[in-house]
Structures
1.
Amino acid sequence: MKKLILTVLIFTALIFSSFNPTICLPGCIPYEDLFKVEEPAEQNITNETIEELIFEPSEDSIRAYQKIEDSKILVDQMKAQGFNTERVQDLILMAEQTYEAQLALEKLGGRPDYSNIYLKATEVSNLRSLSFQISDELINLRNEINTLDDSLNKTQLNENFNLARQEFYDERYEKAQELIDKTYNDMSHIIAGENLLLALYDAATKTIGNFLDQNKYYIVSGIIILSVVFYFLRNYLKRYWLKRQLNKIKLEKEVLKQLIKKTQNEYFENKKMPETVFHIRMNKFADLIRDIDRQVPILEEEIFKTNEKIKGHKFKDESKSNKK
């Protein structure tokens, strides 16, 4: 029964709405909205927008902009090689800031100056070329150092190379170039010094060899004569040396005696020396004197024997002369 009543009501409403289009059931589109046309939103057009639309940049500004873009390509090339690019990127950033300021001045009708942008772009280009050049030179320098003989002192060369490489990584290419040149200069000095030593050694060897070859008979004769002289004079030389040793230790003994007297004087008379120090010094002096007294008779005996040998040679020489 309820369903029948609900159906009748809906049917009645549909018939009534067909005669009155202003009535809209839930979910339907209002009648007036079917023919409603939306008006376009009002656009806020200002003088600045108009100036932006009609502004035409000058050829100078276009060239400056292209210079900046070309510089960015060079930076990308450096990045592809693994080089640091902080220095050149700072230059590009300054060029872009200058470009924006000069372009704004140009839009206002002023006289812009893009020359600084060209300078920055040229500097970027030069740094890019220099970075590739230094990279190649570092590789060549490393190879040159490695080819040097291991007997040479390469410490300074390696230090200069490491400094140059660090300067390259820090984008101080000019300083890196100076260090590379210095390393090559040091290398040339090391090689020249080595060649000089080899030349001197070769010359000295040849000179000595030539001298020995040209004077070998004189040299042999001189050696024989010196040997004979030494053989006959050996006892005289030995006696001379023994007497010098004997005189030396006797002089040392006299000095020790003087030191003993001085020590005794400071201890007994002046009372300036502690008893312990006094006994230590006296024992030390006594040991030294005993050692000297032990050496004296040995040297005197050696001198006596040497004198006997000299007298024996003289007696033989006299006997030979008497027989003749």
2.
Amino acid sequence: MPKNNAVWFCGWFPSTENSLAGNFIHRHAQAVGAQFPVTVVHFAPYLIGSPKPKALDIAYTFQIEFKAIPQFSMKFLKPLNWLMYYGMVLVFSLRILRKISPKIVHIHAADKVGIVAVCLKPIFRYSLYLTEHWAIFNESVNDRYSKRNLWFRWTFKKVWKNTDWVASISQSMYRAMEQNYAISRPFLHFPNVLDPVFVGLPIQEFSDQSPFRFLHVSNFEPRKNVPQIIDAFLSLKKEIPNIELWLLGGAQSPDFPANQGIVYFPPRTMPELVPIYQQCKALVMYSSSENAPCVISEAQAFGMPVISSDVGSITEMVNEEQGIILPYKSEKNQQIADLEQAMRQLCLNYSQFSHKTIQLHALGCYSPEFAIHSLLNSYNQTCAE
């Protein structure tokens, strides 16, 4: 008989080799695991000869089963990599599912591992949940789902068709997937969760003489449009000298200017992020594609207004009382002009935002006890059936 617990098959998850990969899934697992029996299963491919990834040595609220899968770097061995990956994943998954006998299997990021959970569903007769985090289901992105190979599209569609519940991080994410597959599945809202370090902190007070400090947090990949943010800031600084731009998370490009009010920070742990957020007045981003960025809810937890493009699920997270949403435009000069105007507007009208209201919105939507409420209700109902 299946037991009242859940196994999470996670395509992405933090490891010793990449502590930020899938950190949003880790936050979900920490929140749900504190109130429901969860076992997280992650298969981590790595190239033979490179360091073998392991689970982070930290306190978990859930059980974790972590399996590193060796892969060859040579392209002509790709079929062997495929066989090694799925063979090891299948054997390990069978062992875990026989031991735990879960009532629920929940796929997080279905890349590669999702199809295994689907194939084993008739054997173990569990209810299948799906949470996806990828922006590829938006047709505006370059690496969108419709451009992926046949195997990739077939496996993802198979997962969708066999899912009993889609626990989606946003409504727009669910609609994009539903449109791609032309099949509706039962939906529940399961937003990204704030790390507990961001919950319950006071809103920072700033003096009239303190600089207006903008913050951008990302990995600086091209779709984040960091050069446009920098150019908009430098143009505005000629008009409003007492402003700064803090850029955190990515590698500083040789093309990025130094000084001129711009400060770069390497990636930080969650506790290390707190003083960074506390010293800034507003978050600024202008991505060409996103889902539901955790940095927005984090900034809002400090009462910070947000400037962002209107891509992905961002319009579900930010309204006119919480920041400035810009229609995304593809022409670079127009992007810079729009960003500069939004940054100017925020500097001049900063006092008009209710920072306490912004913070309460974030805590009411993304703090652990609220964000997981619908999922826990569904889990408990499934277990009662």
3.
Amino acid sequence: MSDTNAVVKPTRQDEAKKALRRFWLAGTAGAFLSGLSRSFPADFATRSFHPNVPYTLDIVLRYGFMMWFLCYFAISSFSAEREHATKSTLASIVHDLGQSAVSLLAIFYLGFVTRGQPPDPAIKFAYANFAVLVISGLSWMVFQSWTNVLSRISVLRELGIVFSALGITSAWVFADSLHAQSVPAYAWFIALQIGLWATLARYWWIQWNMDDESFENANIFSGTPEKVHEKVAPQVPKPVEPAPVAAAAPQTNGADEKPPAVK
């Protein structure tokens, strides 16, 4: 009989696909850190005890989006390294490439690559929300969230689509208010970004605590799935009792044996 518990070793093609995903995700995170190292010293030098409120809110939004992308790709890298991701499909590779490309485009328009470009805040926030929209939409399509639209992970992807779509629409509607440095307009974008952060925090909690099958298939109205790291009492093996030894037949020597009776 074959051993059903035998571990299937991944092929070289599977290892190459996984290495490509790891390399691409790490390179994207490196680009984010490079942008932070260029922009943060210059922005820190403009600090003041009497700050310009719209300018300060603009800085908060820019760095909020940057840190959101950085944290998201850290979670994606963790997810790619998990046991279930040993085999990387072509769809998952396209998903990683697509979300990396739009995120790098977003940090360019947020001014982390070329400082001060573009000067239009509506364009900055529109491209940042567009990147979140593409990330959420690609995840929803690639991982077939339509098969269970009310699962915990599907709802988070759908919330990401809703918040980012609202952000894109708001960038178009409140473009003139942003040009006029309206504080309520900036506050509205901060509220939308808080929604994105809450969605990402829940996604991280699921990735950290729960089994993939649990959170992928569990409905939001069902009970809490079982956790991977749930502590189980160690099983103490029972002592093996020695098998009973049959009593040996008494041995007799030839002198003790009685001769057969003679009829």
4.
Amino acid sequence: MQEDIDRYIKGFLKAMPSEDMFMDAIHDIVKDLVKEMIRKKINDDPKLKSDLAEMMMEFFESKVKEYDSIAKMAKITAKIGLVSAPDSIKDEAMKDIMDTFKREIQEIILRTL
């Protein structure tokens, strides 16, 4: 009988929400309130909203330039590799490089969409 009660109490306590769950919930609520306050401040100030929009466009443009630079760097690296490679493996290397670039470019495009 005592074992049944102990097992019942332990099972009940395991089903109770933990302290971490409450802390996470409070953290999420505070985070939402902060977001709401920031949105209100941005929406109340047209200049701030415009500056934020301009900054976001500059950020996106810089990301596109970053990906473009990475692609150019990879292209140059591939050219160096092909120039350095023995003639016997150039065709195979070229095919491998093209396949890799195709996959990489597809991944970059998918990540940016």
